Request: fold
Amino acid sequence: MNAFADDRKPLVILAAVVLVLAIALFLRGIGSLDLILFSILQYFATIGPVALGLGLTMIAREFDISVGSTMSLAGCVAVIVGQRDPNLGALAGIATGVAVGFLQGVLVTGLGLSSISVSLGALITLAGLSYVVTGNQTISLNHADITQAINAPIGSVFSVRSLFAIGCFAAAGVVVALTRVGAELTATGSDRVAAATAGVRVNRVVVVVFMLSGGLSAASGVFLSYGLSVASPSGLTDVLVPAISAAIVGGVALTGGRGSPVGIACGALTLCTLNAGLNALGVSPTMQQIILAGVLFTVAVVAAPRLNRIWMRRTQNGGGAL
Reply:
């Protein structure tokens, strides 16, 4: 099955969610369309890059659960260093994430450790470092012009943050679809021994995806902290569940070897659309979690291998009995 076919289910799910919420909002006569779209893309700017990096590790049959702590530490580093030079602060924050990803990738490939164990240790360690570097305090960024520029609407619905996130997905989509990187990533996640036999440097692939995961999480943390004009050691650690959910809704297999940046983007946009739409409808946070759980359960059922085999056989038999 080609990449475009793999992306159809996430696109269908996104289209269905947009249609249902659009009808509900129209019937309720709620809100400005520009404002709702801006809200969707702002949330996408937060979880999108994180979901992309995490999703790439999942495609390679690894798992980076340290993304929340990486995001938080990078935001803290960026704000502290950025008091004098915001550009240098942003680079320091992103470099922190890339270094964390590199270290995790080396531990996983060099010592043969489980990526879950390594990233769990990183999750706890980085959370502690965030408290250390901030002195367990909330740090403010004294550059109101940077905050205003990052959050300023562009074309009514975009911002610097959301355009950066869209650019990350566009670049990743082009690289994965049009170069051998995509094939090597999928091969690494599907059958690592066969991939190595075919000449794929699987260890390098794993290290690179961890570096990308760390860098993208860090970049999201830097942009969000600059956008809020504040960094907190505990403020950005709740991004893991939305990021995993976005990757799963986007068609990334927990067993590795399947998924794409386009699908992950659709998954992230689905969650962001649900979040913004349900907030506009006045749905309680508890009910929002139930609805999200229902969407994830539906995706799991639709993606079940046995159900797919039954569907394929029924299609080949012209819809007749099995």
User: Anything to note?
Assistant: The beta strands are 139-140, 230-231. The first strand starts at residue 139 and ends at 140. Confidence is low (pLDDT under 50) at residues 1-5.
